[in-house]
Structures
1.
Amino acid sequence: MQLNTIIGDIAEQAVDAIIINLFENTNSPGGATAAIDQRMNGAISALLVGGDFKGKLRETSVLYPGETMPARRIIVVGLGPEEDFTIDRIRHATAAAAIRARELGARRIASILHGAGAGRIETYAAARAAAEGAGLGLYTFEKYKSEPGRQGVTSFTLVAWKEQNADALRAGAREGEIIANCTCHARDLVSEPPNICTPSFLAVHAEKLAYNHGMTARVLSDAKLRELKMGAFLSVGQGSAQQPQFIVLEHNAEMLKDSAPLVLIGKAITFDTGGYSIKSGEGMSDMKTDMAGGAAVLGALQAAALLRIPYPVVGLVPAAENMISGRANRPSDVVRASNGKTIEILNTDAEGRLILADALVYAGGYKPATVIDIATLTGAAVIALGEGGAAALFTDDEQLAERLSLASQSSGERIWRMPLFPEYAEWVRGSDVADLRNIPGKRYAGAGTSAAFLQEFTEGSQWAHLDIAPMASLPASKVVHPLGPAGATGFGVRLLAHMMLDGD
Ligand code: BES
Ligand code: MN
Ligand code: ZN
């Protein structure tokens, strides 16, 4: 889909659908909507008077302008009450209207910039959000469908009317388009079936990504991983016919000798059966999603390159498959991580923390400014926050918590901070035979204890852990209406991209 921006009159766009808006509880339209209402002899006012359209967020109504305008149809989208308006509502309104237009078969769409008028949002931020909303909302994954589904949208044009806003409009739209594309890149990887998206598939994919975006890629081989003594990571993959792959991506690699990088670590279990602590059929059903953290890191690194983030950013993606065989981990096995700590594996389904442990130690080798890991780590986070509720944030660093909270606000990706009580560390230290146990004795505070386990491997750098299990893949219409179809959300790419853009 081509994303365009122009300064002009929305009413003059000769496209398949033009998109205009209305706040909730307004009796009379304003701005471009008023102008169009006038040209159509009050057709929009009539919608309101008749009570056919309330202006609720994401509500849409379709009108046919006939001879009064060159466009084939007009889609009116609700923005919700004016006093509740936010940048995130621009994304949701743009996505809803674009999806409605596509359902009607529209291929060329023009939209006004929601929020730039009465919503009082800066053109730059409004354009960025609109571009994100269009790109995310119109996402599909139809690679394996023999019959192509609905026809795709070919062009989406953002129309602003003030001459002086042209640069802000263009720059904001460009940034939003990049962020949406990188999110859809992560969604594509998560949507891939697990027989295709194996650890080596991800490794090859990362190498191509690096080549296309001027980054450095390294994939650590089995021999190298043994040399680094990554016993925790290697143990998880040893039950699978697929070799584990440890992917290292560097943006601005040449700056690494002078400046401390931001290191992003993403869990990439390409399928999680649970191992011998096997999951139920239902529990296993969506476990191709267990590489969503890794996908988010690949998407975020692509965004770092395209957005020209001015400092070094490193992406670490430990990739493995958690399967069963004569070589797989047994409950009670003891492994040694690359920092020398021994771990008693009491549950082979708590595998994410094992692969992240060695990745966190590897991150320490960069003397990083900041380390953020992102992982579909626990069902307990889903229980605590709900499907589509928020990702759980764990950190002891107030400054990093604040930075992530700002990024959450500007990206619209919700995170919720949870505690790292010192007792949690005690619970994962209580092994009879090793330094640590991969699950505590009891099932309580499951998200917190997994975070406490990870903290054992952070060695003092500024660190945050994001448990994205509640957010990585959503059934249709959950707590937060996803921007796009059910399934992979690409959660984390927008959060991390906005964080990198908001400064260091
Ligand atoms: N990948 C799962 C966590 C998960 C569960 C993600 C549901 C998304 C939806 C993880 O590897 C896992 O199995 N965690 C266990 C940990 C337990 C054994 C301590 C869990 O949450 O049940
Ligand atoms: Mn598991
Ligand atoms: Zn898992």
2.
Amino acid sequence: MEAKATISGHTELVGLMAYPIRHSNSPAMQTEAFRKAGIDCIQLAFEVDNTTLEDAVKAIRALKMRGSNVSMPNKTVVGQYLDKLSPEAALIGSVNTIVNEDGVLTGYCTDGIGYMAALKDMGIDVKGKKLTIVGAGGAATAMQIQAALNGAGEISIFNVKDKFFEAGKETVRKIQEHTSCKAAIYDLNNHEALRREIDDSAVLANATGLGMKPYEGITWLPDVSYLHPDLIVTDTVYAPPMTRFLKMAREAGCRFMNGHPMMLFQGAAAFKLWTGKDMFNV
Ligand code: NAD
């Protein structure tokens, strides 16, 4: 249905609660998808940080909103204010989508689901495959745990020895305890291990901020000889669209994608949770 977007007394609302958030494309994307699907609903962005999060979540119930997206700095904090968590959100320890069903709020994490969908869109099913994923922050954890939940055979995590390294160790522990996937973490400065783990991986992912401002033009990959042409190389960074990391992948003859599909598919997964509909087929 192609109805013109109009707001009436019946129009429903989903939120996007984060700070900063004014730069986000999500409200335009979700509202356009609602319009195309003939659903009288819009998304609005709200500047919400940890100090106002509890009240903002209460408003979802009070205003009978369909739900909300949640981003930084609220993703790892919001779970305590919700009624239920999906299995992946509980394991990842992060929520980016809230669904309101008759006042019962459930938290989901669609970041890893979006990454899996982006890989699938490239024709890759992670089942039984080995992935090397560099990073141990929010995006990396979601990708690593979702890949394990989706049946990946082995995941090698690399991170510098900063405050995130412990989080990476915890991810390894969770994967080993809750899935049948093998997992290990290495220091990103261990180049011998990096070369060895990449050698028999099907997927190599950058899930650090290297490549985007203030790290534009920088990558942790020492040189192009670490890559092989059968490797699928992915970057969570989408601005700029071609990072130094992806340029090296192109040079090595690898198939590659930037972070845009992951972002798109995580939004589509949230849309599906709110509406039951496929964003790309409305
Ligand atoms: P985060 O702050 O939770 O984690 C940062 C990660 O980068 C950690 O692993 C940290 O160790 C690493 N890091 C930071 N500085 C480093 C350095 N100098 N050298 C090596 N490693 C370094 O961040 P996040 O939320 O996980 O985001 C990571 C990246 O993913 C960002 O670029 C973000 O924009 C992007 N992202 C993309 C999507 C998407 O949908 N495409 C979703 C979430 C995040």
